[in-house]
Amino acid sequence: MSKNGYLQIHDPLKPRGQAVGIDLGTTNSLVASVVHGKPRCVPVDEGDSLLLPSVVHYAKDGGVVVGARARRLAPEHPTDTISSVKRFMGRSPDDAETRKLGHYRFVPGSKVVRFDVAGGTPVNPIEVSGEILRALKRRAEAHFSTKVEQAVITVPAYFDDAQRQATKDAGRLAGLEVLRLLNEPTAAALAYGLDKGSQGTFAVYDLGGGTFDVSILKLVDGVFEVKSTGGDSALGGDDFDRAIAQHVLQAMGASEPSPALVAEVLAASRKAKEALTDAPEVELSAGGHTQVVKRADFDAWIQPLVQKTGVVCRRALKDAGVAAGELDGVILVGGATRVPAVRRYVAELFGREPLGDIDPDQVVALGAAVQADLLTNADRQDEVLLLDVIPLSLGLETMGGIVEKLIQRNSTIPTAAAQVFTTFKDGQTGLDVHVVQGERELVEDNRSLARFTLSGIPALAAGMARVEVRFQVDADGILSVSAKEQSTGATQSITVKPSHGLSDEEIEQMLLDSIDHAEEDIQARQVREQRVDAERVLAEAERQLREHGSLLQDGERAAIDAAMARVRELSAGNDHLKLKEAVHALDETSRPFIERVMNQAITQVVGGHSVEEF
Amino acid sequence: MRTHFDVFGLPRAYDVDVPALEKQYRELSLQLHPDRVAQADARERLKALEGTTALNEAFKTLKDPVRRAFYLLKLHGIDLDREDAGAQKDMPLEFLEEVMELREALDTAMEKKDLPRARAMATDVEARRKAALGEAAGALRALEGGGPGADGQALVKKASHALGRVRYFTRFLEQVDAFEEESLS
Ligand SMILES: Nc1ncnc2c1ncn2[C@@H]1O[C@H](COP(=O)(O)OP(=O)(O)OP(=O)(O)O)[C@@H](O)[C@H]1O
Ligand SMILES: [Mg+2]
Predict the structure, then answer these.
(1) For chain B, which domains are there?
(2) Of A311, A385, A412, which is closest to B30 when you measure between CB atoms?
(3) How many helices (H) and strands (E) does chain B have?
(4) pLDDT tier for residue A309 given thresholds of 50, 70 and 90
(5) Between residues B32 and A501, the one the model is more confident about
(6) What burial class does residue B101 get, using C-beta atoms within 10 Å of its C-beta: 0-12 exposed, 13-18 middle, 19+ buried?
(7) Closest Cα to atom 3, ligand 1: which residue?
(8) Distance (Å) from CA A309 to ligand 2 centroid
C-alpha cells in the first residue's frame, strides 16, 4: 500500500480481522458481529437475507453450492444435496438419528457417517458443516471488506463431547480459529441480558429445526450463571415435518417411497407446518397427491413431541433448584417456537407468557457476536462473564459394565475430576480405560467417548501400582484426559477422540484437501481486498482534485486522470497484482500534487501565528 | 495444601455465609476466568483454566452444606468418598439394622409399584437425613479450634458416623426419585 501518507486512512486489514459469532443451525445459519458496540447480523444469501439455509449441494463437476440455491436444487438432486447435516455431527452410522426418514445415500460399512454425493468423493458431516461455515466466513469478509478468522460458534447446550468436537473440527476446516463453542440458549440470554440490563432468573426454551434445549440461568452483577441445562439433540421442527410427512405418505399409500418422493413430501410438509402457524388449515400437495391438513390434526400429531420437551424442562428446573413460579422470565428461541401449540404449551408449563421481543431467528447469532467481542476486545472484558455447565455426566466403565460417574451433569465448567486406578494382577503394565457420557447406569446405554490403554505402568505386585487419571473439561465443554503413575511420576496425556469420530490424521487430511480449494479462495480474497483498496484511493484522489484543483500544475491533471482510468479498468478484472501496481502508479503520479495540498494546509494552520508560539 | 477454604480466604469452619460466598465467587470468576485471557498466550490460558477449575470445585463444595461437611471430615482425615475407606466398614450395628429395614420396605413398595408408599418413606428418610446432617454439623463445629486430643477423636468418629448415614439416606432418596420417574413415564 501507499507510504506517502495521505492515502493511508486506515489499514483495512486489522491484524486478526473482524471477530464474528456464528449460529450454525440445523436449518439456517447466521453470522453476526459487533460494530460500533452493537451486534448485527450480516446479509449472507440471495436478496440480502440474513439466514443462510444450512443446505449444501455437491455438483457433478465437483462444485459446491451453499444456501438458498442449494435448497432449490434439492428436489432434483435429493442425494447430492445435504440438509440438516447438524443432526449427523458426532454421530455414528448406526445411531437412531442416522436411520430416521430421510433421502440420503450413505457409504455402507464406514465407521463414520459418509454421504455418497456427486462429484466423486463421499463427504462426512464435518466437511459438509465446514462448507457452511466457509460460506458464512466468505460472505462476512465480503461484507466487512476484511479478514474473518476468529469466531464463536454456537452449539446446542445438550451437545455431547463428540458433537462439540466435530463442530470445532468443522470450524478448523473452514479456516476459522474457534474462540469458543457457546451454548445456544446461553447465547440467547446474553443477547437479551445486554439489551435490557436485567437481573434475575430466566428460562430459555429453544426449539430449532433439529434440536431442543432448555437452560435455567441466573443473571447477577454481570455474571450469567447457567444453573442447569437439558435437552434433546434430536428433536425439533424437522420432526414436526416428519410427523406430517408420515401421515401424508400413508395417505398416498407409498410404503417404500423413493428418495425423491420423500424429499418432496418433506418439503411440502414443512411448508404446510409453517403455514399452519397463521392459518387453521392448509392444502398440501406433493407427488400428485393433494390433501387438506387441519391445525387440530397437526397439533395432535406433534403432541407427543411437544410433551417430550415438558419432561426435559421440569428436570432442568429441578436440577437448578428453581420453581417455575420463581422465574423472572421465559425466553423463546428458535423457529419452531412459532408453532401456536408450542407457545401455548410453554406458557402453560411455566405459568407465564414468554418473552419474544428479539427476533427468535437472530437472537443466538447476536449473542454469539457479543461473546466474540467480549473475548477479543480488551476494553469490554470486565462487563460480562458467562459461566456455563456441562450438559451430560462423564463417567468411566467399571466392573460389570456399570458406569461410575466422575463429573456430574450441570457442573460449572471448566471442571476436573481425578480417579486413582490400581492394578489387579501381579506385574500388570497396562490398564484399559473407557470413558462414557450420559446419565444411564449401564455403559451400553450411554455414549462411548473414548477407549484407551494406559501403558508403561511399572510391573509391581497387584494393587501396588497406582495410576491417577485426571479428566479436565474446558470452557468449551470438551474433555481431555491425562494420567500419572504415582510411584514413578510418569505422565501420559491422551487426547480424547470420540470412538465414532474421526482421528486427528483424518482431520489433517481433510485440512490438506481443503487447501487445494483454499488457493482459489485466497486468490479471490486478494482481488476483493485490492479492489476495496483501489476504491478508497480513487475516492480520495477525486476529492483532492475537486477541492484543490487550483494547485494543479501543467500536464499533471492529464497524467493523474490516466492513472485513475487504469485503476478503474483493472478493478473490474481479476488480476490483483496488476491492480496493485496501478494503485501504486496512481500514488506516485499524484504525489507532487498532494504534497502541495498538504503544504498549503499546514501553511493555513500556521498562518497568522508567529513561529515562537509553536 | 491449598484447601477450598483458602481459595475464598475463609477459616476452616462448618458455618459459611452462602450469599457472601456467592458474591465472592462471581468476583473471583470475573478475575480468573479463561475468557479474560482468550487472546493471551498458552501459558496464561492454562493458568486461567486451572485457577477457574479450582475455584469452581471450591465453590461447589462450600456452598452445599452436605458437601461442605464431607469435605471438612476429609480435612480431619476421613475420606468417605473413597471406596476402600475403612470408615465405611466401621459403622455401628444399629445403622446396619436401619439400612436393612429401609431396604426391605423400599423393595416391597417397588415390587408392588406402590408409589405413595415410596413417597411416604422418602419424607421420613428426608427427616432422618436432616437430623443426621445436624448431628454431623454439631460435631464438626465442636472440633473447630480444638486440638486433636481424645475428645477430638470421638468427635471425628461421631461426625463420620452421622455423615455415613447422610450418605446412605441420600442414595436411598435418589432411588425413590428414579422409581418415581420410572413409574410416571
Ligand atoms: N412460521 C413458522 N411456523 C412454524 N415453524 C416454523 C416457522 N418458521 C420457521 N419454522 C421452523 O423452524 C425451524 C427452524 O428454526 P431455526 O432456524 O431456529 O432452527 P436452527 O437454528 O436451524 O436449528 P437448531 O437450532 O435446532 O440447530 C424449521 O423446522 C422451520 O420449519
Ligand atoms: Mg438454532
Answers:
(1) 4-63 (1.10.287.110), 86-184 (1.20.1280)
(2) A385
(3) 8, 0
(4) very high
(5) B32
(6) exposed
(7) A274
(8) 16
Q: How confident is the model at residue B166 (pLDDT cuts 50, 70, 90)?
A: very high
Candidate CATH numbers 1.20.1270.10, 3.40.50.720, 3.40.50.150, 3.40.50.300; the one for domain A529-613:
1.20.1270.10
Segments of chain A assigned to CATH 2.60.34.10:
394-501
Ranges of CATH 3.90.640.10 domains, chain A: 237-301
Residues of chain A positioned with their CB less than 8 A from the CB of B35:
180, 374-375, 381, 385-386, 475
Which one is predicted more confidently, A585 or A103?
A585
Cβ-contact A61, A406 below 8 angstroms: no
Over residues A507-532, the mean pLDDT reads 63
Which CATH entry fits the domain spanning A19-236+302-387: 3.30.420.40, 3.40.190.10, 1.25.40.340, 1.20.140.10? 3.30.420.40
The letter for the amino acid at B174 is E
| Interface ipTM | 0.86
Check: CB of residue A90 under 8 Å from CB of residue A163. Answer: yes
Residue with CA at minimum distance from ligand 1 atom 15: A335
Whether the pLDDT of residue B23 is over 80: the answer is yes
Does the pLDDT value for residue A1 go beyond 60? no
Q: What average pLDDT does this structure show over A379-389?
A: 80
Report pLDDT digits (tens) over A151-204. Answer: 999 999 999 998 999 999 999 999 999 999 999 999 999 998 765 567 899 999
CB pair distance less than 8 Å for A414 and B52: yes
CA–CA min distance A558, chain B (Å): 50
Does A26 contact ligand 1 (Cβ within 6 A)? yes
Residues sharing a CB contact under 8 Å with residue A332, sequence separation 6 or more, in sequence order: A205, A206, A343, A346, A354, A355, A356, A360
Q: Is A111 a catalytic residue?
A: no
Residue A48: helix, strand or coil by DSSP?
helix
Model confidence, pTM:
0.80
Residue A501, pLDDT > 50, answer yes
- Considering only CA atoms, which of A63, A75, A238 is closest in space to residue A135? A63
pLDDT at B125 over 60: yes
* pLDDT at residue A345 in the model: 96
Binned at pLDDT 50, 70 and 90, residue A495 comes out as: low
The owner of cell 466423486 is A120
Fold of A237-301: Actin; Chain A, domain 4 (3.90.640)
Counting from 1 in the atom list of ligand 1, the atom nearest the Cα of A184 is: 25
Q: Which of A194, A98, A90 is nearest to A498 (CA)?
A: A90
Tell me, rounded to whole angstroms, the distance of Cα A137 from its chain centroid.
11
Residues of A in contact with B34 (CB under 8 A): 414, 474-475
Which residue among the candidates A45, A127, A160, A206 is catalytic per the annotation? A206
Q: In chain B, whose CA is at the least distance from the CA of A382?
A: B30
Using a 6 Å cutoff on CB, does residue A211 contact ligand 1?
yes
Higher local confidence (pLDDT), A429 or A608: A429
CA-atom Rg of chain A in angstroms: 29
CATH number assigned to the domain with residue range A394-501, chosen from the 4 options 3.30.43.10, 3.40.50.300, 3.50.50.60, 2.60.34.10: 2.60.34.10
| pLDDT at B86 exceeding the cut of 90 | no
A334 C-alpha vs ligand 1 centroid, how far in Å?
Answer: 6
Of residues A23, A213, A485, A529, which has the active-site annotation? A23
If you ran DSSP here, which 8-state letter would residue A13 be given? S
